[in-house]
Amino acid sequence: MNHHRSFSEKELMNDLIASEKQISSSYNIGITEASCSNLRQHLTNCLNNSHQIQYDIFDAMRQRGWYQVKKANSQDVESAKTRYNQEKTQLQ
């Protein structure tokens, strides 16, 4: 007896966004390890495209109520900016 289970749209989109996150991670590693400027530029373009695809999937899921996010208040945003700017300054 063959049982074929088809995946729901939500399951497929969850898989897609997880895959795109993994792909982005791989591009990041490639960029940091590439010594050829042309390769670095190509991988950076691929990474940017991957980020856009991730956002498109995220936004479609959010619109369907499948990806809930907490809205950041302005104080939290400013606090994060300050913290990351301090870290950036310390690394320079």
Automatic annotation (TrEMBL):
UniProt keyword annotations, A-Z: Capsid protein, Virion
Gene3D superfamilies, A to Z: 1.20.1260.10
* Any Pfam family the entry gives: Coat_F
Q: Which InterPro entries match?
A: Ferritin-like, Spore_coat_CotF-like
**Protein name according to UniProt:** Spore coat protein
**Which organism is this entry from?**
Alkaliphilus pronyensis
